[in-house]
């Protein structure tokens, strides 16, 4: 019987080990890595998809503008049937008359000079294409920034939950001690109730954090296009040591000429200048040449008319445009140039201020880490001291609970400081156009 029980015990043990292994594997599969989230968000983002579609549309428009360099060719056909003769009979020449006629022809025209409008149309199409590509690039930066921000918000809440769990363990041990002391008649019931009140507040905080985590997780996975699962856990490297921003980046990067937003503003100025040139082209003459070949005949009568090729040339001079609406449109376009240039200057100033603000925010976030670490060190030492004093009867329970709460707040401030630094660093890299964009499938 003992042998059977021992064998059964071994089988159950093996089964439990296998189940624990599978549970561990599943837990690992449910980890959320930041780099994977970035790639998923970039692939899922509808903003990026629309940006790619706009770039594709701009490319088609550029091809359309380029086609204007080539001749335009069109074919025409005409057929007429008269219930009475269209041409009455002519003795000896046309005895039967003609009741139908047809005409077919083809015309090719080539613009020789159009005031530069063809060239300008191609330049405008090219600038629009470049702007669309820059817009997509800016959208990708924004998606990566938003993903990082949401990720570190979730990390922050998860770490806060760890702090609460540690405090809960501490209070449970303290509560057990108080119950033993109360049973021994060494303390009053009031001290036991103090610990219970403290624990109730902690349980409320634990419930709030649990709900906050669910919302933060939902926000992150929906943004990244991942199925929502409450068991998903954001994963980060443990024991992260953050170096001073002065050592990592030395000086704030103020060269904004490579900044995507600045380059987009430059493209707007470039487009405004091209629009002025395009309006001026409306005042210039347009010259073109062409060739037409046509045939005129009847279906049941051979009129003997062969295909007749004709070459022609055209010149159009817009005389009234010099005092009409076209002249006023040039002035309107010049005003748009001034507006675009002013926007560029304002944008440059705003980008510079934004970069400097993000730099000082990063420095402050680093200082916050240092101060919060010091605060935690002092709070931990104070709690240990108060616990020794309390166990020795040199202080009261209120002081011990205050010390424990101070340590919990200090731990929370360290967690907040690290998450805040990661977010501020992402903002700084975004504003200085240094964010690393992962390679995705549809890139």
TrEMBL record:
Molecular-function GO terms, alphabetical: efflux transmembrane transporter activity; porin activity
Predominant subcellular localization, coarse grouping: membrane
Pfam families registered for this protein in UniProt: OEP
A GO term from the CC aspect: efflux pump complex
Subcellular location: Cell outer membrane
InterPro entries, per database record: OMP_efflux (IPR003423), TolC-like (IPR051906)
Keyword line: Cell outer membrane, Membrane, Transmembrane, Transmembrane beta strand, Transport
Classification via SUPFAM superfamilies: Outer membrane efflux proteins (OEP)
Family in the record: Belongs to the outer membrane factor (OMF) (TC 1.B.17) family.
Name of the featured protein: Outer membrane protein TolC
Organism: Mesonia algae
């Amino acid at each position: 019987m003992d042998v059977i029980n021992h064998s059964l015990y071994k089988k159950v043990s093996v089964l439990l080990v296998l189940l624990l292994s599978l549970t561990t594997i599943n837990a690992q599969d449910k980890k959320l890595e930041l780099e994977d989230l970035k790639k998923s968000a970039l692939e899922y983002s509808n903003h990026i998809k629309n940006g790619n579609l706009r770039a594709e549309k701009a490319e088609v428009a550029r091809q359309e503008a380029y086609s204007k360099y080539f001749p335009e060719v069109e074919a025409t056909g005409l057929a007429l049937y008269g219930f009475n003769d269209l041409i009455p009979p002519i003795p000896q020449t046309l005895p039967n008359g003609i009741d139908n006629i047809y005409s077919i022809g083809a015309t090719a025209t080539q613009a020789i000079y159009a005031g530069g409008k063809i060239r300008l149309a191609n330049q405008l199409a090219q600038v629009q294409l470049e702007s669309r590509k820059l817009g997509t690039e800016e959208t990708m930066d924004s998606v990566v920034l938003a993903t990082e921000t949401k990720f570190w918000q979730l990390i922050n809440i998860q770490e806060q939950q760890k702090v609460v769990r540690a405090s809960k363990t501490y209070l449970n041990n303290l509560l057990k001690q108080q119950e033993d002391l109360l049973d021994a008649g060494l303390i009053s019931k009031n001290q036991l109730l103090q610990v219970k009140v403290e624990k109730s507040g902690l349980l409320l905080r634990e419930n709030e954090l649990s709900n906050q985590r669910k919302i933060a997780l939902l926000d992150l996975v929906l943004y990244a296009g991942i199925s929502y699962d409450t068991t998903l856990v954001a994963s980060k490297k443990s024991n992260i040591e953050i170096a001073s921003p002065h050592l990592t980046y030395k000086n704030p990067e103020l060269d904004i000429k490579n900044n995507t937003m600045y380059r987009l503003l430059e493209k707007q100025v470039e487009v405004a200048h091209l629009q002025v040139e395009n309006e001026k082209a409306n005042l210039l003459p347009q010259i073109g040449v062409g060739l037409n070949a046509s045939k005129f005949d009847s279906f049941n009568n051979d009129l003997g008319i062969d295909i007749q090729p004709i070459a022609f040339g055209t010149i159009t001079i817009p005389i009234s445009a010099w005092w009409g609406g076209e002249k006023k449109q040039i002035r309107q376009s010049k005003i748009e140039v001034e507006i675009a240039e002013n926007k560029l200057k304002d944008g440059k100033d705003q980008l510079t201020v934004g970069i400097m603000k993000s730099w000082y925010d990063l420095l402050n976030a680093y200082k916050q880490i240092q101060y919060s670490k010091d605060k935690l060190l002092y709070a931990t030492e104070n709690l240990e001291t108060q616990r020794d004093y309390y166990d020795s009867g040199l202080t009261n329970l209120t002081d011990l609970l205050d010390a424990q709460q101070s340590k919990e707040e200090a731990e929370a401030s360290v967690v907040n400081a690290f998450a805040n630094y990661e977010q501020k660093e992402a903002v700084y890299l975004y504003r200085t156009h240094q964010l690393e964009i992962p390679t995705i499938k549809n890139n």
